[in-house]
Each structure stands twice: as structure tokens, then as C-alpha cells.
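Design request, C-alpha cells follow.
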């Protein structure tokens, strides 16, 4: 039994839902049966849980406390390739304030109540008792990981676990939501405006596949986001059928990988420029 599997089973026994993380410290991609929502699930991580396949699918939603699943032959291959153990904080009724650098840690020490602390590669995880909505980039170097998110397990940490404070909830609430108002302008139709797509489902499927590519990126996220935006605009950008809702889905997927709204807008603008839109 691998060390990662032993750690995962120990966490699961304590009520913490776990999943293996591969190179790049990201979840394993969906199995062929689940790619492109063929299973009816939501690979863009918006579903309350995975489909009923036996694979390590659907990112955070794959996290489980079931030892029979964690130690199953299907998961065994993933544990052999895993670089670390991930967990779903919200599923354990926890919230992780991810402090990515020294400046973020200094800010937290001045503004947040002390709690259990775990050292990371570049900063610290501050763990609170209580769940909330996850938010990325709530301030420079600070992410909040709880429901519908995953975090790396880096050890038990030090210090007592305290209740989630209102200051953390307020921090997330203060973040401007990703709404159509923050999205780039919808592309104006060119030529006669005729739409070449067979049905609206064709476009929705294309956007869903684009979201999958961003979600499953294991490295070079910046470049992947740009390439995906370029591909979407190349295929769907000239007929005017892309809506704010479609664009918001792409931006949300990119932000879930740690991209800022500013970077998303820059990547979108650069892709439009490249295509002459």
C-alpha cells in the first residue's frame, strides 16, 4: 500500500473526503465515458457530486470517505501516479484560507483570528471549522477553498482549530462576482450574420468541451486558457451566437484554476486580436 493511499484512508476514517492529485497537483481528468458530460455529470465542477462511474472523475466531486472506493482496483492506478493527496474542505465542514506568499501571511496575521496553520510550498493554509462558498483571488495572494473546491493535504498542521470567522465570510462576499458586467463584449456578427451551427446544442457542447480542457489542464494554465479562448472564438466567434453566459462559463473555469479576471479578459482580447475580430 502506497503512503498516499495510507494517508487517504486515515483522513477518510476521520471524515475528510479525499481524492488523488496528479502531476501539477491537480485532479485526474475524467474518464472517456464522462468527458464532455457524456455521463450527464458536470466536469466543470458545478455538480453536487460525480456520476456513478467507478473512475476518479469530476475533480473535487470525486472526493469520498468510502474506504472501499478509495482502495478499489479502479482507484489503485490513480494512487500509483498520484503526487499528493487532495481533500474537499467543504465536505469535511472546513474552510482553507490559502495564503500564497509572505505578504499574504503578513496580512492574515494582522486581520484574521489565529487558527490551525499548515505550511505550504510558498505560504500557509489557515484552516477554520465551518464551510462556505469558495472564492479565488479575494485579495492578492489569498484564495478561499471550501465547498466545490479541493486542497492539498500537507499534514495535520499546528494550533487549535477555531470557528470560521465573519471576517473570512465578508472577505469572500466583498469580491466582485463574475457577472456579464465583467465579461468582454459579445462578438458582433460579421457578414450576413448567418449562424453555421446546426443547433444551439452544438454551441453548448463546444463550450462544455472548452471548459473541460481548462479544468483538466495539469500545467501551463495561462497558455491553455489562451489556446482554448482562441479555439472557441475561431469556431464560434464570427456569427454572434456566443452569449455572456457562454463567456462567463469559460471565465469561471479559468478562475477555478487560479486565473484572475484581468488575465481572462487579456487572454480573450488577445485571442480576438489574433483572429481579427
Amino acid at each position: 500500500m502506497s503512503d498516499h493511499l495510507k494517508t487517504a484512508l486515515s483522513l477518510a476514517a476521520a471524515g475528510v473526503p479525499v481524492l488523488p492529485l496528479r502531476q501539477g497537483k491537480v485532479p485526474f481528468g475524467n474518464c472517456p465515458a464522462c468527458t464532455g458530460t457524456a455521463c450527464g455529470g458536470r466536469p466543470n465542477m458545478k455538480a453536487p457530486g460525480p456520476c456513478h462511474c467507478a473512475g476518479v472523475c469530476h475533480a473535487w466531486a470525486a472526493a469520498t470517505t468510502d474506504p472501499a472506493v478509495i482502495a478499489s482496483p479502479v482507484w489503485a492506478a490513480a494512487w500509483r501516479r498520484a503526487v499528493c493527496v487532495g481533500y474537499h474542505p467543504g465536505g469535511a465542514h472546513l474552510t482553507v484560507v490559502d495564503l500564497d506568499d509572505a505578504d499574504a501571511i503578513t496580512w492574515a496575521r494582522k486581520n484574521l483570528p489565529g487558527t490551525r496553520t499548515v505550511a505550504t510550498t510558498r505560504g500557509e493554509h489557515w484552516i477554520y471549522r465551518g464551510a462556505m462558498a469558495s472564492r479565488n483571488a479575494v485579495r492578492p495572494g489569498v484564495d478561499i477553498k471550501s465547498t466545490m473546491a479541493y486542497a492539498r493535504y500537507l499534514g495535520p498542521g499546528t494550533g487549535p482549530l477555531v470557528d470560521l470567522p465573519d471576517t473570512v465570510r465578508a472577505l469572500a462576499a466583498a469580491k466582485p462576482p463574475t457577472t456579464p458586467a465583467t465579461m468582454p463584449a459579445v462578438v458582433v456578427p460579421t457578414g450576413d450574420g448567418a449562424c453555421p451551427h446546426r443547433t444551439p446544442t452544438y454551441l453548448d457542447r463546444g463550450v462544455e468541451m472548452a471548459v473541460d480542457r481548462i479544468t483538466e489542464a495539469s500545467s501551463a494554465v495561462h497558455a491553455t486558457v489562451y489556446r482554448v479562448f482562441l479555439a472557441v472564438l475561431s469556431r464560434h466567434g464570427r456569427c454572434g451566437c456566443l452569449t455572456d453566459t457562454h463567456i462567463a462559463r469559460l471565465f469561471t473555469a479559468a478562475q477555478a484554476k487560479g486565473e484572475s479576471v484581468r488575465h481572462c479578459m487579456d487572454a480573450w482580447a488577445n485571442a480576438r486580436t489574433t483572429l481579427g475580430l
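Comment from the thread starter after seeing the answer: thanks! The radius of gyration is 20 Å.
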